[in-house]
């Protein structure tokens, strides 16, 4: 620490602020403010406000984790396939 104190740690978890690429806004996706920064707003199927555009992982979930990113990615993939095959 600045005052010279030392804290032994086995691990350190940090939650950095999210900085989105301008791509989501350029596509017209609705964004929402979260405690970690701006994220892409999605529904339960990971669909954005733009038909045919899906988002997952850190861009679509504040303070996510690897587990959530994998699950959201699977749902986004399934939803993309469904959209392409059935127009849903």
List keywords for this structure.
elongated; alpha+beta; 88 residues; single chain; two-stranded antiparallel ribbon
Provide structural commentary.
The chain is an alpha+beta fold and 88 residues long. The protein is 30% helix and 9% strand. The protein has two helices and two strands. The protein has helices spanning 23-27, 66-86; strands spanning 31-34, 37-40. Strands 1-2 form a two-stranded antiparallel sheet. A hairpin with a 2-residue loop joins strand 1 and strand 2 (37-40). The longest helix is centred in the C-terminal third of the chain and has 21 residues, at 66-86. The mean pLDDT is 93.
Order of helices and strands: HEEH
Q: How many beta-strand runs?
A: 2
Q: What does the overall shape look like?
A: elongated
Average of per-residue pLDDT values: 93
Main sheet strand line-up = 1-2
Distance between the termini: 54 Å
Q: Summarize the amount of helix as a percent range.
A: 25-40%
**What structural class do the secondary elements suggest?**
alpha+beta
**Percent of residues in beta strands:** 5-15%
Round the Cα radius of gyration to an integer and report it: 17 Å
Regions with little confidence, pLDDT below 50 for 5+ residues: none
Number of helices: 2
Please summarize the sheet with the most strands. Answer: 2 strands, antiparallel
Topology record:
Elements (H helix, E strand, L loop, with lengths): L22 H5 L3 E4 L2 E4 L25 H21 L2
Antiparallel strand pairs: 1-2
Short description:
The chain is α+β, with helices and mostly antiparallel strands and 88 residues long. The protein is 30% helix and 9% strand.
């Amino acid at each position: 620490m600045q005052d010279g104190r030392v804290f032994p740690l086995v691990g350190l978890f940090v939650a950095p602020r999210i900085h989105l690429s301008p791509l989501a806004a350029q596509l017209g996706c609705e964004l929402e403010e979260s405690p970690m920064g701006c994220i892409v707003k999605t529904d339960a199927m990971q669909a954005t406000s733009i038909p045919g555009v899906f988002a997952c992982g850190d861009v679509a979930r504040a303070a996510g984790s690897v587990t959530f990113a994998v699950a959201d990615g699977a749902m986004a993939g399934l939803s993309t396939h469904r959209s392409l095959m059935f127009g849903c």
